[in-house]
Amino acid sequence: MTTAYQPDDYLDSTTEFTDNIEQRETVGKVFELLFLLGLFIGIFILALLLFDIFQDGLARFLAPGFLTETPSRFPEQGGIRPAIISSILLGIVVIVVTVPIGVGAALYLEEYAPKNWWTEIIEINISNLAGVPSIVYGLLGLGVFNYLLGFGPALISGALTLSLLSLPVIIVTSREAIRAVPNSLRYASYGLGITKWRTIRSHVIPYAIPGILTGVIISISRAIGDAASLIVVGAVGFLTFNPSLFQRFMALPIQIYSYITRPEPGFANAAAATIIALLVLILALNGVAIYIRQRFTIN
Amino acid sequence: MLYSNNINQSDTTTVNQQDNYVFNVEGVKVYYGGFLALLDVYLQIPVKQIIAFIGPSGCGKSTLLRCFNRMNDLIPGARVEGRLNYRDRNIYDPKINSVKLRRQVGMVFQRPNPFPKSIYENIAFGPRANGYKGNVDELVEDSLRRAAIWDEVKDKLKEKGTALSGGQQQRLCIARAIAMKPDVLLMDEPCSALDPISSRQVEELCLELKQQYTIIMVTHNMQQASRVADFTAFFNTEIDDQSKRRGKLVEFSPTVQMFSSPQTKEAEDYISGRFG
Question: CA nearest B175 in A: which residue?
Answer without folding.
Answer: A192
